[in-house]
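pasting for ref
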Amino acid sequence: MFKRTLLILTAGLIALSFLTTSALAKTYVIKFSHVVAVDTPKGQAAEYFKKIVEERTKGKIKVQVYPNAVLYGDREAIEALKMNAIQMACPTFSKFTGFVPELQIFDLPFLFKDRKHLRRFMESDVGQELLRDVSRIGLVGLAYWDNGFKQLTLDDHPIRLPKDIKGKKFRIMSSKVLEAQFKVVGASPQVLPFSEVYSALQQGVVDGQENTISNIYTKKFYEVQKYMTISNHGYLGYMLVTNQIFWNSLPSDLKNILKKCVKDATDKNWELSSKLEKEQLKKIEESGKIKIHYLTPEERKVWENAMRKIYPEFYDVIGKDRIKKALELAD
């Protein structure tokens, strides 16, 4: 009887040891899909995230990064994320607005004056509330990633005042705010996927577009446009998100490591965005392929007065108090 009991206990200990070892040995895979080039702020931050996650978890979490929309476009990525087909994505805010319409606040023209203003808003109670609101669709908002302010480009003449783009076709992301922004100054907004912008500019399907320096440089839009205005009229940021099922499946120790990695990769993204913007603008200027105009303070004021007229259209959707809070954080 003693031998039998000992045998059972030994077998139980071996089984427990096996299960414990298996649990400890389990690895998790994060498929991270995004649509931009590797040499953009988001692309480089994603690669940095992969590096530090795999190092700090000692390989218990593997990160597979898929840039340039090789796996999914941003909109498809959100659907894939909801089904846990991928575990991480970093789409533009406009891709969430069908589910969290309040995020349209980031599309409003001339709302934020610089990056410091933006981060103050993002780190405020209102900004953090917006980050949490993606839980409505089964996602976890992890952080805001930066890609800088948008500039205007056009094919046939310089842009100094709103009247200079009247009647012109401008490519935009799908966004009610961006549609209103161009319509209020008499331009014609055209929704096109990011991957089709270069050919649309080259073939004259659209006359111009708005984008960050990073995207204008890496996608070579400056090669198929003759004029660019440094307007800083709008913002293009991203939300780093994961799937709730995946997030909740992580052991607490790995989750804590991942949270710190998210913070460090976010800081790296903002640092890279500012640095690369300066470097890439210089390269665009040195190419001699596009003429660049910087808005004067007087010209900027004209643009602000024209485009801010759309704000009341979005009070009900975004919230008048949120817009007021953002404006108050400017100084």
